[in-house]
Amino acid sequence: MSQNIRFIQGNEVCVEAALYAGLNFFAGYPITPSTEIAEHLSLRLPQIKGRFIQMEDEIASVCAIIGASLTGHKVMTATSGPGFSLMQEGLGYAIMAEIPCVIINVQRGGPSTGLPTSVSQGDVGQALWGTHGDHAVIAMTASNHQDIFAMTVHAFNMAETYRTPVILLFDEVTGHMRERLVIPEPGEFPLVERLRTSVKEGVDYHPYLPREDGRLPMSDFGGKHRYNVTGLAHDMWGFPSNNPSVVQGLLRHLVDKINNNSHNITRYNEYEMEDARTVLISYGSSARSALHVVKNRRARGERIGLLELQTLWPFPFGLVRQKCADAKYIVVVEMNMGQILQPVRMAVDNPERVYLANRIDGVFITPTDIKNILRIIQGRGM
Amino acid sequence: MAIKDYIRERFFPHMWCAGCGHGIVLNGLLRAIEQIGISKNDIVMVSGIGCSSRISGYVDFHTLHTLHGRALAFATGVKMSRPELKLIVPMGDGDALAIGGNHFIHAARRNIDMTAIVMNNRIYGMTGGQYSPLSGYGTSATTAPYSNIDHTFDVVNLSVAAGASFVARTTAYHVMQMISVLKQAILHKGFSVVEILTQCPTYFGRKNKLGGAVEMMEYFKNNTTSVGSKAKQENPELIERGVFVRKEIPEYCSEYEKIIQRATIG
Predict the structure, then answer these.
(1) For A205-259, what is each residue's pLDDT tens digit?
(2) What is the ipTM, given to two decimal places?
(3) What is A1-265's CATH number?
(4) Which of A17, A246, B137, B225 could form a disulfide with A152 if both were Cys (CB 3.0 to 4.6 A apart)?
(5) What CATH fold (topology level) applies to the domain B3-265?
(6) Helices (H), A208-285
(7) CB contact under 8 A, B82 and A64
(8) Hey, of B44, B74, B110, B256, which one would you mutate to test binding to chain A, going by the most A CBs within 10 A of its CB?
(9) Fold match between A1-265 and A269-377?
(10) For the structural domain made of A269-377, what CATH number should be given?
């Protein structure tokens, strides 16, 4: 069987995967290092009768995709740190109004304009708590092109399943790196379509009345049911309400539909974990260096393994606790000042065994950086 | 259909103050839609945040009550993805031209087919009477206790300069004209702007000692004139009403259809 093999940038992988997942509408604003996603989609979307629009800013971009999602399309935008900051308002709206959409953040150095062309994983915390108010979000990442493809498809599936925005946290290295991608055949990955209401025309449709499993059957704008969508706290009709029991029920629903389904949302890879006494925990491009260290040290007989997280939020506390139960050393490898270190410490039984191997200078973390930390932890000096 | 067939009675009474002009705009808008005879299923109303934006909750269309200033950005996504739908976007003056000013000029520039209604009461009513970009020099507001030194936008001139292909102005007093220009705006293919001067007796009227709703509407009657009228030449202070611009230029979604044709040929 001949395979469809490409040698492309990570940003192009996002494009291929999004189209595979059924993307039909993209709105965005140019920003390094995510711009190639917009460029490629401006070419590809009209070829499949989809639509691309370059908006006046990132605020408008996220709002436009929410509007397009309401008419029944699969939608996405892509940006980097400064644009992601502007999108927090629309992200909160999509959470509150339960609109499926995918937001890609190809991370660069921050804060502010920071390091536009350098790598960072500094937006991990912002993905969780960047928008105001109590809520839950889904944020995912990947370290190689094959996984970027799989996770982008997974992101669309989770967005459509739980009617929520899903954030893909890629970074400058994975976004601009070129490597081999085997494009999966149609049907190789299951694709999720959003639930649509079976309520007949003329019968009272309750757009915001969740089923027992937390999912809400939707009706497309322009379809047979006319209803209200709002970012205000709202009742089952989507009409603004400040009734305390309605508000409490809504917030509980928004958080529970994500947190109670983390088993469906969580994805991870593990390497050499069976008897590992030293566990590296990493994600995104940093996991590439961590994996290199594990392979080298395993070859020399060290009991070391890698837990590569792909779903960052909701944080897989149970998974991390279980995988680290027998570990003597746990080292979180990331390119920030410990944004995943914190939840890992909360997850494990012995937080004093958790260490950080990081870089925050815009330079990609190397295996040597990780080895230097390991030598200190293991008492072997520099 | 009767006007009441266009509203969601379940959500009445509305939350506007006694004497507010927004209810008159709602009435005029529904009459315009009724006279055109568009199906309720074909209309999407997108609004932002503020007193004016609550209009979307009361009407029986597909309604999207969005974020402060962002209504036109949401509407752009709806329209682009389903170009056959009619988009009506009511906004307040602060909503459309302060926080939403950038989206306003860019939607106008694209000439995307939708009707932007600026319900201009020259004040932030929902938050209790702060000055807006339309309040004007010398007015009083809770955030301008020593008099406002901000100059105002002229919504008509701004819309024309930004590229809107239909621009009109009317007031809450001139209801028949309101219905007429709204009909023309909705039927126009392209980005249409209708500025409607409405009264806020609760805040703008009270802070500026303009009297109650009746006195404020009398002001609209006595201080406005038809566009291009002789009265305007004699008294340049008068505010012109009517249709200022109506031009046929390429519409954004129609142009995108051509892009799709170009992309799918190769």
Answers:
(1) 999 999 988 899 999 999 999 999 999 999 999 999 999 999 999 999 999 999 9
(2) 0.97
(3) 3.40.50.970
(4) A17
(5) Rossmann fold (3.40.50)
(6) 244-259, 262-265
(7) no
(8) B74
(9) yes
(10) 3.40.50.920
